Amino acid sequence: SSKYSPESFRSQFPLFEQRENRDLIYLDNAATTQRPAPVIDAIVDFYRHSNANTHRSSHRLARRATEMVEQTRQQAASFLNARSGREIVFCRGATEALNLLANSLCCGLRAGDEIVLSTIEHHANLVPWQMMAARYGLKLRYVPHTAGVPQFDRLGEVLGERTRIVSLTGGSNALGLRPDLASIASQLRDRELHWIVDGSQLAAHERVDVQALGCDFFVCSAHKFYGPTGVGLLYGRENLMAAMPPWQGGGEMIAEVGLYQSQYADLPHKFEAGTSPLGSLAGLGAALAFLQQQDREAMAAHEQAMLQWLHRELAQLPHLRLLSQPQHNLGIVAFAPVDAAPADLSLWLDGRDIAVRVGHHCAQPLIRASGEGATVRASVAGYTTWRDCEAFLDAVREFQRISEPQGSVKATQGEWQ
Ligand code: PMP
After folding, report:
1. How many Å lie between the centroid of ligand 1 and the Cα of residue 223?
2. 17 CB contacts (<8 Å, ≥6 apart)?
3. Is the pTM above the cut of 0.90?
């Protein structure tokens, strides 16, 4: 990765050019990345020059807005390698995409049908299924796990006659753990069920090819891969989505409306009720074009090298429990200080302008199973530099020096993994 320059990548992000952010060490990328200039410009340009609601058949600006949305859809289809734009639905984010799937897929199920999840899912891939389970009498089953960490190679043990949906992460936002999706695919092969991949953390770090993956549905959020908030992607196989009922009703999603019933529009519009976040869609198009110009393999190699090093260094600190592992990891280091509150460490880092996340990371069942109340999470992106990593480690070491009780040495690493 010697060719790759995180500094030149970083120079494309105006936030880091602001005087107050010059020295910012931003390690909260799993929550949201920053946006590069082309993305910000596309949003501003849309509202400044071509704002109108979408409608093919009316005036010039409306036609232009419609073209922008459909062009972004084509870019999204090629970003995920979908077969066509009809397989791409724009949502408010991964959360809305998962709620759409839960509502649309579960209303056809019968009491006693089963949905398989894992203990490391984000709340967005837990709560909607719990709501549907309560509404339709469905049963939730979990991939076998040890202290909250799923053993995805044992997925077969929870699949049965009544399994209808398997909805699993493509990468954990709390641990970075990236399941072997090829192995999941082979365990699900030839079964009559729907496989959903929550690719929220995956899309920023790896090229996604939904056809090669073989999943039925894939969801992700633009703001995790340098795009705007308020817009996410739902990929679904065309034949499946064509047969699914719409979730939300309203304008834009209909063909004909009567007083007592209506006919719905074709895919993908059937699932896009109401006015879309047009500025965000313009920004998404710019983010996809921006990503396409990057050497993503080199960027991933740089991120992986930093991740390996951070894990190696943190593993040597005695008063710290490392929860993440460097292998099969999408850019996250998660740990908890042994003798201090995670929130105190995060405040200490904030005091040095180092931004990390502390808490349960919207994965409460997992964090609870780890025996911790909260963890500290540092997550890297293409603009993270080696200097950022060194400064972060120095600050953690310094915190340990000032907070550790004299003479007590506790090494409790490892037993949880
Ligand atoms: N799933 C995962 C794995 C995530 O990391 C996130 C965002 N933290 C979501 C789902 C939800 O994404 P959003 O809040 O953008 O809808």
Report:
1. 10
2. 11
3. yes
